[in-house]
Amino acid sequence: MSESTEKMVSQLITMVGKVLEGQAEMKAEMDELKVDMAELKADMDEMKFDMDEMKADMNEMKADMAEAKVERVQIINSLEDINNKLSYLVADVELLEHDNLQNKKEINRIKKLMEI
User: Fold this and answer.
1) For 66-80, how does the pLDDT look when each residue is reduced to its tens digit (9 = 90+)?
2) Alpha-carbon span 85 to 22, nearest angstrom
C-alpha cells in the first residue's frame, strides 16, 4: 500500500471511531431522555390524581354549600313563622292580664297542661 492510501485508511478508521463514539454518546443521551420522560409522565399522573381529588373535594363542598343554603332558608322561614305567631302570643298575654273569671279558668287550664 502506498503512503497516501495508508493515510486515507487511517483517517477513515479515525472517522469511523468518532462516529461510533458519537453513536454511543447519543444512545446514552437517549437513555437519559427516556428516564426523564418516564419521570415526567409519573409526575403528570400524580398531578392528575391530585387534581381529581381536588375536584371531588370541590364537588363535596358545593354539595355542603347547597345544603347550608337550604338550611338557611328553613331557619329564616322558621323565624318568620315564630315572628308571625309572636304578635298573637303578645295579644293573648295582654288579654290574660285582665283579672276576670274566664282568664282565671284559662290560666288554670294552662297550668294543668304544663304539669302534665
Assistant:
1) 999 999 999 999 999
2) 93
47 has a pLDDT exceeding 70: yes
Residues 97/103/108/110 CA torsion (nearest 10 deg): -70
- All residues at 6 or more sequence positions from 96 whose CB lies less than 8 Å from its CB, including other chains: 103, 106, 107
Amino acid letter for position 30: M
Give SS3 for 11. helix
> In whole angstroms, what separates CA 15 from the centre of its chain?
61
Place of cell 502506498: 2
* Cα 23 from Cα 2, distance rounded (Å): 31
pTM > 0.85: no
Taking the C-alpha atoms of residue 104 and residue 88, their distance in angstroms, rounded to an integer, is: 19
Q: Please, which pLDDT band fits residue 1 given cuts at 50, 70 and 90? A: low
Exposed / middle / buried, residue 84 (Cβ in 10 Å: 0-12, 13-18, 19+):
exposed
DSSP 62-104: HHHHHHHHHHHHHHHHHHHHHHHHHHHHHHHHHHHHS--HHHH
